[in-house]
Design a protein that fits this description.
This protein is α/β, with parallel strands linked by helices. Helices cover about 45% and strands about 20% of the residues. The strands form three sheets. Strands 4-3-5-12-6 form a five-stranded mixed beta sheet. The N and C termini lie far apart (about 50 Å).
Length: about 300
């Protein structure tokens, strides 16, 4: 295709950069709300316009070609130049303008973000907010992939590359199915044997770390029925009677499955986990838009 026919746009470049970061067509298409087939067509169109193969892919892996790495640098530079132009235009009009990308779980987007975003939108109407939702355990990975700010359960300890703002501490509650069944029989014993109880656990994240720590300190080897990425999946499996699960209190309060599970008053006493906003320190220092959002968090 001739150069004067090139029609790639910034959104296509952003999607390409995201694909380069995670090298996964499924995750990229889900994050950008397009079908995998549409993503494949987008990449094919970019390759036709550039005149080179950008990605080598088979049924299991995706890898960048040398031309793909060069084009990724070009795409990143174009996106940065556009954002800088938007910023300069906004500064010239005494009003910040541009784009802010956020990542949060569905629960966080419903319970934590509304008040913060309402204040921010009122003060900075010229900033376009791009909100992506997904599993909370993926939040810090999305930050590494280029998202500006994420809402997440934040691990203890310092990270020199990140800045955090904790806004609440949430207890992790043990939940069981409502009604009679094998799980109810096991819970009805004088002393619950947690080494026998089938458990539905999060795959990873701060909640999983706290759960593992509780069992490790008591030298109990948990009987894991299933490990799943999302809290709603834990609630679903528990509601079906598959086992006992552990989820944040905030998730139960906002779930349509809340009436199909019961909280165990005598469940394990896990450490609370801390939820808040997180951004890359370098981005916070250099981006007026991220700083403005950071200052709006209360």
């Amino acid at each position: 295709m001739c150069n004067n026919e090139i029609v790639m746009d910034l959104q296509e470049l952003e999607i390409y950069v995201a694909l380069c970061a995670n090298l996964h067509f499924g995750k990229t298409s889900e994050a950008h709300h397009i079908s995998p087939s549409a993503l494949s067509r987008l990449i094919k169109r970019l390759e036709d316009e550039v005149g080179h193969e950008l990605l080598v892919r088979d049924n299991r892996t995706v890898a960048l070609t040398e031309q793909g790495r060069i084009f990724r640098q070009f795409a990143q530079e174009m996106i940065s130049r556009w954002e800088q132009l938007q910023l300069e235009l906004g500064m010239a009009s005494d009003e910040l303008a541009g784009k802010l990308t956020l990542f949060a779980s569905v629960t966080a987007s419903q319970s934590i973000l509304p008040n913060v975003l309402a204040r921010f939108r009122q003060e900075y109407p010229g900033i376009h907010i791009q909100l992506e939702t997904g599993y909370a355990v993926n939040a810090l990975a999305r930050l590494r992939e280029g998202c500006d700010v994420v809402v997440a359960a934040l691990p203890a300890g310092e990270d020199t590359q990140l800045v955090k703002r904790i806004i609440m501490s949430i207890p992790i509650l043990a939940i069981a199915p409502v009604g009679e069944g094998p799980i109810d029989d096991m819970l009805g014993r004088a002393k619950v044997d947690w080494s026998e109880m089938p458990l539905v656990l999060p795959t990873l994240g701060q909640a999983r770390d706290n759960i593992d720590d509780w069992f490790r300190r008591r030298r109990i080897r948990p009987n894991v029925y299933s490990e799943v990425a999302g809290n709603e999946a834990i609630l679903s499996l528990v509601a079906l009677g598959c086992g006992v699960g552990f989820v944040p209190k905030l998730v139960i309060e906002n779930s349509p499955l809340a009436d199909r599970v019961r909280v165990l008053a005598s469940g394990p006493d896990f450490q609370d986990f801390h939820v808040g906003f997180c951004a890359r320190k370098r981005n916070l220092e250099t981006s007026p838009i991220i700083r403005a959002f950071w200052d709006s968090i209360h």
